[in-house]
Every structure is written in structure tokens, then in C-alpha cells.
Specification:
Layout: E1 29-34, H1 42-57, E2 60-64, H2 80-91, E3 94-100, H3 108-115, E4 131-137, H4 145-156, E5 160-168, H5 185-204, H6 208-211, H7 215-219, H8 222-229
Parallel strand pairs: 1-2, 1-3, 3-4, 4-5
């Protein structure tokens, strides 16, 4: 086959053997982010419920609490909450993002957390190859504006965003006083989403470097790519 525009020395053919799941010794590590600082935050209650389901499957779960996180560019990388977020990000193999819908979009509190995630370390995005599940809670009727935006962010950050998602309408009716979620089709959907996330994480963790390795980036030098991705003027 004649492919004169491709440097074939940099284009290795993928094989079944190379995409096999890795049997790692530690349980899947899942980081959960939510988008509200209210005392009774329904996005927080939703991720806590999701976390319990993931722990049942066998995952190690950590939740980042955003209260005290400065706005992007209103603090520095040494701020304790920023450092905590970066350490949890490095630790994780998969993530759950859950936002309330505010004015038809995700909350600024969740977006601030995502904006604090480093764009790249060298030429590699910090989220590249991690799995992602997206969820939202609604104050009124069911909507999908926030999860649709979260999907765009996940794709742009080169995450493996699973097909399933959750949107909980009238969230104030769906949780008990103690914070547990009531039985419903919305609860069952969260179980579905966490089950799918866990399966995708088992399939892909330990394979991030191979699955997200790109011909175009192998062609470019690491130095050139790093300069392009980390443009100071953006």
C-alpha cells in the first residue's frame, strides 16, 4: 500500500494484544467532583450516593469538596485547595462530574474546578485517558444542558466519557433528610451510570498512554507540541 504522506516509522499498527485490559493490584481510583457549596447541596448528595455504589463495586473513591477553592487566576498553584485538587487528579483513574443546572448551564463552582486542572504537563493533558461519567441535578423539570456541556469538556480534555449519563429533576424531592437518595428510576439510572463507569475504568486503566498515543503528536517534537499547547497568551 502506498501512503506517501505518512511517516510509516511513526505509525505502528494497533494489535489486540496491546489493547488488553491490565490486571493492576490496586482497586480502580475514582475522583468525584460536584458543583455547589450549599449546606444541603444536591449535587454533593448525588455524588455521595454514586460513591457508595462505586465502593460496592470495589472502587476506591475520593470526593473533592470545592468550598474555599479560589477562582481561576485569583490564586496560585500553591493554594492548599488547588494543591489538593491536583493531587487527587494525579491519583485518579476515572472521574464523576455532577453539576446543578443554573441559568441553563453548569455551575460556576464546577467549572472553576475544571479550569484549575492543568491544561498540560509537557504535551500531555492531566486528564488524558481517564474515564468520565457526567451527571446533573435540576431544581425543576428534567434537563440535559449541564451534562451536554460536561460532555464537551470531557471530550476536549481527552477523557473517555462513557455513553450513559444521569439527570435528576426536582432533586429536592429525591433525597431523604439523612442525605440518602430515595428509590426511583432516577436512582436506578445512577446505578447504571456507575456500573458502566466502573466497567470502562477496568477496561482502560493502565492503558492510557497507549490508547491516547497519537500519530500527529509523534510527528511533532515534544518541544514544539508543548509550546503550542501551553501558549501564554491564551
Amino acid at each position: 500500500m502506498n501512503l506517501p504522506n505518512i511517516d510509516l516509522s511513526l505509525l505502528e499498527k494497533p494489535t489486540l494484544e496491546k489493547v488488553q485490559a491490565k490486571n493492576l493490584e490496586h482497586p480502580p481510583r475514582i475522583l468525584l467532583l460536584y458543583g455547589s457549596n450549599r449546606d444541603r447541596s444536591y449535587s454533593r448528595l448525588a455524588v455521595q450516593e454514586a460513591g457508595r455504589i462505586l465502593e460496592y463495586f470495589g472502587a476506591e473513591v475520593k470526593i473533592f469538596h470545592p468550598k474555599g477553592l479560589p477562582l481561576p487566576e485569583d490564586g496560585d498553584m500553591q493554594h492548599p485547595k488547588v494543591k489538593e485538587l491536583h493531587e487527587l487528579l494525579a491519583w485518579s483513574e476515572g472521574m464523576v462530574w455532577c453539576s446543578p443546572e443554573r441559568h441553563g448551564s453548569m455551575s460556576s463552582i464546577l467549572k472553576a474546578q475544571i479550569d484549575w486542572i492543568p491544561l498540560a504537563a509537557g504535551a500531555i493533558r492531566a486528564t488524558q485517558g481517564k474515564t468520565l461519567a457526567v451527571m446533573q441535578v435540576c431544581g425543576g423539570s428534567q434537563s440535559f444542558n449541564a451534562v451536554n456541556q460536561l460532555r464537551i469538556l470531557g471530550r476536549w480534555m481527552r477523557m473517555i466519557t462513557i455513553p450513559n449519563q444521569s439527570s435528576v429533576p426536582k432533586a429536592f424531592l429525591e433525597f431523604e433528610e439523612d442525605g440518602g437518595m430515595k428509590p426511583s428510576s432516577y436512582y436506578t439510572r445512577i446505578v447504571d451510570v456507575m456500573e458502566e463507569l466502573y466497567k470502562f475504568t477496568l477496561l482502560t486503566r493502565g492503558q492510557s498512554a497507549y490508547l491516547t498515543d497519537r500519530y500527529s503528536e509523534r510527528v511533532e517534537s515534544a518541544e514544539e507540541l508543548s509550546k503550542r499547547v501551553n501558549q501564554k497568551s491564551i
